[in-house]
Amino acid sequence: MKNKLLLLFIISIFTIIFIIFYKGLKNTNVYTPDIKINKEVPSFTSELFYSNEVVKSKEIFDLDKFYLLNIWSSWCAPCRQEHSLLMDLMETKKIKIIGVNYKDTKKNAESFLSELGNPFYQIIFDKEGVTAIEWGAYGVPESFLIYDRKILKKYIGPLDEQSIKEIKFLIK
Amino acid sequence: MKILKLFLIIFFIFSFNHLNANNEEMKIKITKNLRCLVCQGQSVYDSDSEFANSLKVLVDKKLEKGFSETQIYDYFKDKYGEWILYDPELNKNTYLLWLLPILIFLIGGAIIFKSFIFKK
How many domains does chain B have? Predict the structure, then answer.
């Protein structure tokens, strides 16, 4: 009797372990930070791309409008791919697009913009990648939809037709 | 008098160096406890990715501003969540992680106690 109970106990423990590991197999082991919605825009100071002026983040988002903050770089291939979508979005005039130029040189960034167009209302020059960290970003491109100084939505990776549609719907 | 001045200068240089070294040690300690999110499985200290390099610059800046170690951890936790720390804190998601070893130790102790001491 005691032996049978022990066997049952061992078998049940192994089944539980098996189930846990089997489920774990299907889980992705790539972590993406939690997307905190309705979080306040982080406060930081940074340099503007064209004027070299130092501005506070609160001053940038002070209008009663929707903003899209887009982290981009001239060396980032997916940014090139999403750029036409940003141009398209800018033409709707319902949203102001703020660029964060991530770890780039001014020369390369300027030629990128003159080649593909400039959809940005303002560009923050983030040479050391510190501003991107303030936003909780860890790569390029990433985009944040902002209204009333609150982050409504976060897009990791390049924007696609689907996400642009969603943004257009949200800002209506 | 001259000798005194010289001593003072040397003393200041050394104390300044000491301060810098302290910051440097602290920076290494902190970046070793931060997880690089791009190259997962590596600490920020070990990694040379763009993300990790930016993080190192930021840790430097925060230390210069006089942030303490826990303040810096809190800052990164706020930005990226608990996962960025290699040393997880005790909360509702991690209590099992912290308590299980103690529990196993206690159960093991109980078994040993029962089989060795009571049998006698």
Answer: 2
- Does some domain include residue A154? yes
What's the CATH number where A82 sits? 3.40.30.10
Query: Are residues B57 and A130, on separate chains, in Cβ contact within 8 Å?
Result: yes
pLDDT tier, A62 (very low <50, low <70, confident <90, very high otherwise): confident
The ipTM of this complex is 0.75
Question: Per CB distance under 8 Å, which residues of B are interface residues toward A?
Answer: 37-38, 40, 50-51, 53-55, 57-58, 61, 79-81, 83-84
d(CA A87, CA A148): 23
CATH of the domain at B31: 1.10.8.640
**Measured distance CA(A166)–CA(A150) in Å, rounded:** 17
Residue A13, in any domain of the structure: no
Residue A36 CB-half CA count within 13 A: 14
Contact B68, B15 (CB under 8 A): no
Which residues of chain B neighbour A151 with C-beta distances below 8 Å? none
